[in-house]
Design a protein that fits this description.
The chain has 254 residues and is α/β, with parallel strands linked by helices. Helix content is 37%, strand content 13%. It has a single domain (4-233), classed as Rossmann fold, CATH 3.40.50. The strands form two sheets. A five-stranded parallel beta sheet has the order 3-2-1-4-5, with helices on both faces.
Amino acid sequence: MADILVFGAHPDDAEFGMGASMVKFARAGASVALCVLTRGEAGTFGTPEQREGEMRAAAEMLGGELEILSFHDCQIFDTYEARLRLAEAIRKFRPRLVFAPYHTNPSNHKDGGAHPDHTATGTIVRSATRYARFAGLKDARGEPWNAEHIIYYMVPRSRTPTLLNDVSPYMAEWESIARCHQSQMSLRDGKVLDGLRRFREAYGNLLGVAHAEGFLVEEPLVFDLPFFMSTSSQPGGVATAGAEKAGALPSPRS
């Protein structure tokens, strides 16, 4: 079981896309699990064996549980069978929060966030979260489970996040975990981490902090008057904004 279940299509997706938030959640006492669909077999850098080792090292450093599925890189499609497999993962971990790459990205072919596997994973997760709660769906193994929220990372460049999470104090630890994916450090002419930092700086600027990670939520969120009335909710405030302050982050399970 886990408080938070993060889906990624490839071995580095979760760490590169929302890794500092995962660190923050874990250090706050929430249990975090990663479910990775492929071993990055079609990638330019690194072998599947190497990339599996890297993601296991990253999960160990985070302190999260890791589940590796047997999808194939560049062959992730929204099918009934795929929905069942992810629904089974949700039933296994029984999370309160489910994170996935955003399901729609109209950006160009050079934008790594717009990889078809990313959007397909988000689409499958959206359906699988629903499937997981259907007691009559006997094709899916495990007891039914109703996750409370789906939150999407890998926000398209054309969208403004609906949630921002201040991760400024966790950037150094995030970078150490991201560097576990050593085979991918050659991406972007060796400047992949520089680009990922700039994204977090841009989101942090929206919030008035040094670094933030952005998310999209499609469901209505409960209006929390004390949060909106507090000075700490304003840009530059001491408290965190984003998923936690919106009431989305659960308290640690006993």
